[in-house]
Write a structure and sequence with these properties.
This protein has helices at 2-20, 38-60, 80-116, 135-154, 168-171, 175-182, 234-241, 247-252, 262-271, and strands spanning 125-126, 133-134, 193-200, 205-211, 216-220, 228-233, 256-260. With 275 residues, it is an alpha+beta fold. α1 (2-20) packs parallel to α4 (135-154) and α2 (38-60) runs antiparallel to α4. The mean pLDDT is 94.
Length: 275
């Protein structure tokens, strides 16, 4: 977990430096998060530092209950709308200079909490609105948030921006949890669809996602025929699975290759939608 703590510090430092170099108007530019301005996204990950710190301290003390004002979300329930409203309000309330200061202070305080955790603390149950997790997995989600939202911000200024590579070996295995949280039953499917992912470094994936009308499961790759095969690198895989990179855009940019039925390939991001 020392590597994860250092990656959080590094990713936070990089996005803080990037935001500090923006002009006032740039904070209002639309980000890759639909409906979120660049400053809203930065406000969101700023808020996350203190929220995560407090929740981890509660878990360390043996409390995995929802904090005041929070609750577990039901399967399929979206939480992004209220999150966006809070982030936008915080952005407008604080302004750029105060947000930059709050971000720096928040992530340094979070880092100190993480450094103080004892080996037994990493497996203690920790509250997350999508379900109770071991603290180590909860901290991994903070790294995911920083990495993906950093791309959301940077890609607003550089269409060729890529996901930061150092966190990918840790983040790619987390994609299965994202798929579980975002699956939408597909009554229109007349037969199961087998999607195969062939993902290359710096983190590799070779797995099938078998989708039926009301469920899906992840399976190891066998000799079974796949209806669609996606081939790409790890950063593209995350952006595609997280719904940030539409299939046609990925293909047009040469970031992904597919084999199989094009129409079924296009269905993937309608089966797994944002939360």
């Amino acid at each position: 977990m020392a590597d994860v703590i250092e990656l959080i510090r590094s990713e936070a430092s990089q996005i803080q430096d990037f935001m500090a170099g923006l002009g006032t108007a740039d904070w209002s530019r639309p980000s890759a998060c639909a409906g979120w301005a660049v400053g809203d996204v930065f406000a969101h990950i700023t808020q996350g530092a203190s929220t995560w710190r407090d929740t981890i301290l509660r878990a360390q003390a043996g409390d995995a209950n929802p904090p005041p004002g929070q609750r577990l979300l039901q399967p399929g329930e979206r939480g992004s709308d209220t999150t966006a409203q809070r982030a936008s309000a915080y952005h407008q309330e604080m302004g750029a200079d105060q947000l930059l200061s709050a971000f720096a202070d928040g992530y340094e305080a979070l880092r100190q909490v993480l450094l103080d955790l004892q080996p037994e603390d990493w497996d203690k149950p920790c509250f997350h609105r999508r379900g109770i997790l071991p603290t180590r997995d909860y901290v991994g989600i903070r790294l995911q948030e920083l990495t993906i939202h950093s791309w959301d911000i940077r890609s607003a200024f550089d269409a060729a921006a890529t996901v930061s590579e150092p966190p990918l070996p840790i983040l790619v295995p987390q994609a299965q949890r994202w798929l579980s949280n975002t699956f939408r039953p597909a009554s229109h499917l007349s037969a199961p669809v087998r999607y195969r992912f062939d993902v290359s470094g710096p983190a590799t994936v070779r797995q099938d996602v078998l989708v039926t009308q009301d469920n899906f499961r992840i399976e190891p790759v066998t000799a079974t025929h796949a209806d669609v095969t996606f081939r790409c690198r790890a950063g593209t895989y995350l952006l595609f699975v997280y719904g940030r990179l539409p299939l046609e855009q990925a293909l047009h940019a040469g970031l992904m290759e597919i084999e199989g039925d094009r129409e079924q390939a296009s269905l993937f991001n309608t089966l797994f939608q944002g939360v």
